[in-house]
Each structure stands twice: as C-alpha cells, then as structure tokens.
Amino acid sequence: MSTLLSAENLTGRLLFAIPKKGRLYEKCLELLSGADVQFKRAHRLDVALVQNLPIALVFLPAADIPRFVGQGNVDLGITGQDMVAEAGPQIGNLVTEVIELGFGKCKLQVQVPEKVDETAPLADGQSPESRKPIESVEQLVGKKVATSFDTLAGAYFKKLDAEVNEKRKAEGLEVLPPTEIEYVGGSVEAACALGVADGIVDLVESGETMRACGLHPISTLLSSQAVLIRSVTSHPRIEAIRRFSSADLNAPPQPPSSSSSSSSTSEQQPQPPAPTATTTTTSRTTPSAASALIDLITSRIRGVIAADKYVLCQYNVYKTALETVLKITPGRRAATVSPLREDGWSAVSVMVLKGQIAEVMDKLEAAGAEDVLVTALHNCRV
C-alpha cells in the first residue's frame, strides 16, 4: 500500500504549494474552493490529492515556497511577496509572479518605541542623546535591529549605513559602526521592550499589535500581498504529467522519419526545406500538459478574484433616463441593454465594483431606475 508521498501517487500530477498555516492559509482554502479544486486533507498530512484534476497540493511554510518553486520541487505556489523578496535574488530570479491575489496585504516596516524612559540610569558608555526617542531611520544606524527578515533588513541597513557614513565623513564626523541585525524567529514586537534591540523590522497589517507594544513606524521597506508564483524555467519532472487536453491525445501521428525509409532505396531521399516565416507547416505544436494545467488553474483563480471584486447589478429604466443611468453604470466593457415587453422600457445588466454598489444604487434610484437588484458573483471569466 503506497503513501500519499510515494512516487506512485505523485507521478503525473502537478504539484501546487499552499501555505500550511498562518495568515494566508484560510484565504487559500477559499480561493481553491472557488476555483473548484476538490480535495480532502487528511489529519496531520501535508499532501492532498485533488480529486477532479491531476494536481497534488503540498502544504509548506510560506517562507519555503519560493525556494521549492524556483528549484523545481513544486510547479506552482502561493506565498507572500515579502517571502519571495526575503528568499533573496538567487531564488527570486527563478520565480515569476503570475497573479497578485489581493489578500494578505501588509507592509514590512521599521518600527521603534514611541517613548523612552529618560529617567532611567544610563548604561556604561551610553550618552544622554541615545535615550531620546528615535524619530528617523537614520538614527538607527550603528544600533541593533531585531527582525525575522534578516535578508531584507540586512540589505536595507547596509545601504543606509553607507549613505549615512558618507554624509558624516563629508561633515568631518566619526564614522558609525555597521547596524547590527539580530535574527528573532517570533514575537519580534517584544524585542525593544525586552532590551534586545533599539528597533525592529517586521510585517504590519493593521498596526494594532505594534501600537499595543508602544511602537510606531518610521520607514517602510516594501508593501506585500499574496501572489501566485511559478518557475521561470520548465523542469524535466513536470513533462511527465499526463496530457490534460483530449485534443492532444487525438493528435494525428507524425510521419516516419527518413531513417525508417525503405531499405530498397539506396540513395538518401532529399529533405524538405525547413519552414520559414513565409511558409506554413501542417504539424501542430501543443503546449506541455503542465503549462496547460497551470494556465487552467490561473484562469480559474483570476475568475474567483474578479468575482470577489464585482457584483451584478440589474435594473429597469424608461427610455428617457437610459443615457443617464448608463453613464452611472458603464460596466467593465459595456452594459447589456435589453428591451422589455412594455413599450419604452429597457432592462439593464451590468457589472459594478462591489465597494461602489451602495452609492451606485443611490444614483440609479435618483435617476429614475426601478427594480434595482444586486447579485453576488461566485466566479466569472472577464
């Protein structure tokens, strides 16, 4: 009896990496459900076989997904832009963003204490100026910064150190030592209060946790959200995935090569000229099954994301107000206008941004639209 992780079960399946826990996990499950990716994840197992597609879901730490995708261990993955950046250029250059998913939005920021106890005794060698609140990121140069993003923080402060010290040299001031980056695996926001660091670099969503710890931002390294990523190069393993398109299975057989010509022919047959830009060929090229499957999943996910942004608005309107209401609801491309059986009346159907629908309904009612209905979208192709 084979296990889920056996080669027997994974052969012929596209491997799709999903964050196994944390802020992205639940949103990923909603996204997969909307894209009709059907699976059951057994308790304590980090692999699930999709029932309706040749895909295996692999649940990994979000920080590991860029490396697994870039090195070809998995074919597709969802992670944060911050994780891709933290993996460094060596891995970042191996992956490409396919879609920004619109959730998991946050900022990687430098945070420092808002207040400092200036009445506390000074430590050995500590100047009174060092006890004042830090107001700019330049004031952290030469001090200690705690973070779990040591790659990004290290690169940021290395550049900042050089800029600050170059300016100090020009002013005849003493050069400051390099900023010390202290790696902390978790609870980074507590580092300043515990005396571990003078400032931190950490992800911030609402900022409530930081404010509760008495911290405030003084610089932003990057803004991040969840993204779908894939490798920039094709890996030999994924070419073993079975053909996803039935058209590929029914492709006509290729003509025999010249090496299989009749043995009675003593002279080699002349080869036809290679096709050029002005000639055509009847041989049909098809994308690899892996690429076709990735395109399918990408299309489904795009549909789920679009459906989450829009609602379908339908209403009836008399002809004298038609031009006015169409200016209120122009639609993504154009509104669908259909005549009603009652003379002079039309039915309008149009997609409207979900965040604007309340205001749009107010304007439609004021302009004379009637029977205004709004329908939620679960999926679409736009």
From TrEMBL:
The protein's Enzyme Commission number: 2.4.2.17
Pathway involvement? Amino-acid biosynthesis; L-histidine biosynthesis; L-histidine from 5-phospho-alpha-D-ribose 1-diphosphate: step 1/9
Catalytic activity field: 1-(5-phospho-beta-D-ribosyl)-ATP + diphosphate = 5-phospho-alpha-D-ribose 1-diphosphate + ATP
Q: Which InterPro entries match?
A: ATP-PRT_HisG_long, ATP_PRibTrfase_cat, ATP_PRibTrfase_CS, ATP_PRibTrfase_HisG, HisG_C, N-reg_PII-like_a/b, N-reg_PII/ATP_PRibTrfase_C
Q: Which PROSITE patterns match?
A: ATP_P_PHORIBOSYLTR
Look up and give the organism this protein is from. Answer: Tilletia caries (wheat bunt fungus)
Record's SUPFAM superfamilies?
GlnB-like, Periplasmic binding protein-like II
**UniProt entry keywords in alphabetical sequence:** Amino-acid biosynthesis, ATP-binding, Cytoplasm, Glycosyltransferase, Histidine biosynthesis, Nucleotide-binding, Transferase
Residues of the signal peptide = none
Annotated region Disordered: where?
A: 245-286
User: Lineage from the top down?
Assistant: Eukaryota, Fungi, Dikarya, Basidiomycota, Ustilaginomycotina
Main subcellular localisation: cytoplasm
Q: What is this protein called?
A: ATP phosphoribosyltransferase
Regions of compositional bias (Low complexity) in chain numbering: 257-269, 276-286
Q: Where in the cell is it found?
A: Cytoplasm
> Where does the Histidine biosynthesis HisG C-terminal domain start and stop, copy by copy?
307-379
